Amino acid sequence: MRFHYTFQKVVDLKANEKTQAEWMLSSALGELQAQEKCLEDLLEQRRGLMLALQHAAEQKTPMSKLREMQDYVDYLDHCIARKHSDISRAHIEVRHKQDHLSTKVLDEKVWLKAKDKAQTAFQQSMILREQNELDEMATVRFAMKSL
């Protein structure tokens, strides 16, 4: 006789939910990395522009050109500040997804432990049943030899 767990579909569902939570965490981490990469690009662009602005200031560059470069630096500063905010939100989302995954992992472990207990109980009952059958066979043989 094979072991058949009554709540196997629940165990499967919990495993699927855990897998889905892992994917969602992976997606959130990917988004965080993309936001951080974008911030690095903005900071690098700002550094390059600041060097160009400094070089232009040392040369005979028209004031309108300097002002235009400074306006762009201000725009980049605004983008950088917004990107920091985006990164902060992405960190919060990652923490939320990690908590969600932890909950799903714990939930799955509970159901797997219940399944293991049920399987152990089944195996014990099967061993007991087998032992009873062997005892009965031995009793019948003993009785047959006595006659």
From TrEMBL:
Residues 25-59 form a coiled coil. One of its GO terms (cellular component) is plasma membrane. The keyword Transport applies. Pfam families: FliJ. GO terms for biological process: bacterial-type flagellum organization; bacterial-type flagellum-dependent cell motility; chemotaxis; protein transport. Keywords: Bacterial flagellum biogenesis, Bacterial flagellum protein export, Cell membrane, Cell projection, Chemotaxis, Cilium, Coiled coil, Flagellum, Membrane, Protein transport, Transport. It comes from the Bacteria. The keyword Coiled coil applies. It is a peripheral membrane protein. It is found in: Cell membrane. Its main location: membrane. Gene3D superfamilies: 1.10.287.1700. InterPro entries: Flag_assembly_chemotaxis_eff, Flagell_FliJ. Belongs to the FliJ family. This is Flagellar FliJ protein. It comes from Paenibacillus jilunlii.
